[in-house]
Structure prediction request, 292 residues.
Amino acid sequence: MYRKVPVLTALLAGIAFHVASAQGPTDPAWQDVGKILQSAPVDGGGYVRFNFPRSDVKLTVGDVAVAPSLLSTAWVGFSGTPAAATAMGDLIILAGELPAVTKALAAANIDIMAIHNHIGNETPRLNYIHIHAMGAAADLARRLDRVLKMTAIARPVVAAAPAPVTIDTAQVFAALGKSGKSNGAVASLSFMLVNEPVTVNGMTVLPSLGYGTPIVIQQVSPTRAVATGDFSVTAAHVKPIVTALAANGITATALHIHMVGAQPEVYYLHFWGDAPLATLLKGLRAALDAAK
Prediction:
């Protein structure tokens, strides 16, 4: 859990974080963490991120073969410095792995912040475990490595070669009012919808690590796309977003918290949409507007 720190200590930690951010994932210390986790460090937008795609899982939602980047890439991110880091992330776990993983997390002194499902009708069923720990990054990585060994996640993680972009990114980014990333048939964007500092036990949470709003869209065919993600918002925005999604044929599939003890409390509203791309974008734009 987070612990309270004096103001001066927090300010110094913030300075240290910005130094670490400037160094980024190419810093040798983060490369060493990557060797332990068997995944290359990447820039997470203010933190250092390690991805663990569930390439062992052939995931479907209904009749859609889902790209790993849409639903089934586990990850852990580190803020702070290699010497004093905060780790948060999502482990994506199959039902049969859950007992061993939760036991290993407890043994490794890694906090479980939430366990739940995000979609509900995917095959196989995926469980998401949201985690949190603090300490030296290399030590955190060794502890997390023991947890990952309880899963069938393929490691070392081999980065897939970029695929030709087949989704209309110009249409996606223009409709949602922001540029993002794309690979193959998938476009992804991230928004920040909580406009006030969030703390857990008095410690400020890095926004991009703790409560960003990802939206991911996959072009299935020329006339069909699917979309998922979660709106991370405070309580007053939940109902307007649910209403906007429903009015545009997008299903709210889960509503819960990812951070125990957050102030203000942040709610994570997951969704699934399946429609022509233009129709999906109209609904997502309405939900983003409702979040304001």
Residues 7-148 form one domain. Residues 7-23 form the longest helix (17 residues). The mean pLDDT is 91. The radius of gyration is 19 Å.
